[in-house]
Amino acid sequence: xxxxxxxxxxxxxxxxxxxxxxxxxxxxxxxxxxxxxxxxxxxxxxxxxxxxxxxxxxxxxxxxxxxxxxxxxxxxxxxxxxxxxxxxxxxxxxxxxxxxxxxxxxxxxxxxxxxxxxxxxxxxxxxxxxxxxxxxxxxxxxxxxxxxxxxxxxxxxxxxxxxxxxxxxxxxxxxxxxxxxxxxxxxxxxxxxxxxxxxxxxxxxxxxxxxxxxxxxxxxxxxxxxxxxxxxxxxxxxxxxxxxxxxxxxxxxxxxxxxxxxxxxxxxxxxxxxxxxxxxxxxxxxxxxxxxxxxxxxxxxxxxxxxxxxxxxxxxxxxxxxxxxxxxxxxxxxxxxxxxxxxxxxxxxxxxxxxxxxxxxxxxxxxxxxxxxxxxxxxxxxxxxxxxxxxxxxxxxxxxxxxxxxxxxxxxxxxxxxx
Length: 419
Known about the structure:
It is built from 14 helices and 16 strands. It has 419 residues and is of the alpha/beta class. The chain folds into 2 domains: 3-222 and 391-412, Aldehyde Dehydrogenase, Chain A, domain 1 (3-Layer(aba) Sandwich); 228-374, Aldehyde Dehydrogenase, Chain A, domain 2, CATH 3.40.309.10. A 7-stranded parallel beta sheet has the order 10-9-11-8-7-12-13, with helices on both faces. Helix 2 (24-40) crosses helix 7.
């Protein structure tokens, strides 16, 4: 095992014991100090980020990765705002629930506790450094972070700002540690560091997720890969459809909750597809269409025939796959076959169709008459998230404070013994 990981892991395990007992007041004061520190160190952070952008472009990074990597004054203010928003949220640690008194007089309950030490491996997005630090601190967990090499300078600058914020309230800087070694071989060691880490969260592309699942000996929470669908039903309000589709695709196309596949009922396709295409043309969205959709959009310069993989692709760019379907049944079959269980939506005025879509689509977030872009911790009122889980165990959707805790049984007795 790498010497750096051994040192980082030992410190994280030691400090996790103290973090479990921090008061809510101390945790909240630390979050406010971190938010302030990020803004105070803005010049250093943006300078470091500019270096990452330059190196990324020189290395030939795709533009959607450059966009994810970019930090601006506005984005730093948003990061700080998300940290501050956690202060107003309830502290889950110490919450007692499911309490009852047994016939023998034992009082049994569950108490919410931190998971312990959380390891996060992530690519491109330096804002993740602060989001995870803040969520782990409020939920009483120590964090070990391993960012991608493309954001190494930004992550170091942000980690330094986080450490400075912790110093203000006397919280150990080891509560949040960034692994600074760039060697990719360290990632495999991180995935098998059972003595130090209780849970691993990979945030990145399919390759990273697959590598984590195949190599980890620590529990892994995967998610954040979204092939997201919007189905336009025959009863859809035509005034709602173009704005929802446009927002889901264009508002920020490089993120996991952006729209990838539009399904539209044949009964309204001729009426609505041209309007949708005209709306998306304002942003130069390329439409990759099945035969029926392509026939309707034959006059659109941005429409072309879909390839064999287009309905199984997370585009992360201004590209949208389009299919005309016979009805709700075919739409549900398509989602079942192609969805990654992230975020899927129906636009309809038919209540029974809406409820059937909600019941039958097995995704972490299912929408009725709204953009998929809302699948986000801050948008759901959770402050932020460490990841968006598409698994079925422990947590689904945005993983925020409560999802970073587990529980233990607490049994209070008065001398009872088992017969």
